[in-house]
Structure to design on (183 residues):
């Protein structure tokens, strides 16, 4: 099974919300989500890396779900969609040297912020709960530009909803442990 097939299977199994199928159709038909890298030069910076990373975050987040809180639907929404802001953002550049080296450049046509943009794009198709919106908005944790600028809203969101912290932690475990081959 390909990562695209795994993603779609997880998505359809767990996400039943109104608008979910339209969001998936948008990802399939109007974005490069299933072909995009997860980053320009860090983790999974190769074609298909973004969908692979999303699956890895789902696997990490579901490990910490206790007593079905948040629901598996919320886990799937937060983990599988936290980085849809990266769709249609990375452009493959030409490589001057020999061999098949992939070089990507970030060219964001809608620079709305990282987590904020993912929330915005999801909400174009389906409603998010407060808990889901906050988790996706703050999934970058201390690396979020607002936090580095002095915002204390991340801490407030983490106090309000445990999944805000857990999504960030799952993203970090996926990136720095699972995808680094340390798992």
């Amino acid at each position: 099974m390909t990562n695209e097939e795994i993603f779609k299977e997880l998505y359809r199994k767990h996400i039943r919300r109104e608008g979910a199928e339209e969001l998936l159709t948008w990802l399939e038909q109007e974005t490069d989500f299933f072909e995009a890298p997860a980053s320009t030069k860090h983790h999974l910076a190769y074609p298909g890396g973004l969908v692979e990373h999303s699956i890895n975050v789902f696997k990490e987040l579901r490990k910490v779900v206790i007593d079905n809180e948040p629901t598996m639907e919320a886990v799937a929404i937060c983990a599988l969609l936290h980085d849809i802001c990266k769709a249609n953002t990375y452009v493959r550049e030409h490589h001057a040297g020999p061999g098949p080296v992939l070089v990507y450049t970030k060219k964001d046509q809608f620079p709305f912020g990282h987590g904020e943009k993912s929330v915005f794009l999801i909400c174009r198709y389906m409603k998010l709960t407060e808990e889901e919106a906050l988790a996706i908005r703050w999934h970058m944790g201390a690396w979020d530009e607002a936090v580095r600028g002095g915002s204390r809203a991340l801490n407030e969101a983490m106090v309000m909803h445990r999944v805000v912290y857990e999504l960030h932690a799952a993203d970090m475990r996926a990136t720095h442990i699972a995808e680094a081959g340390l798992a």
In short: The chain has one domain: 3-178.
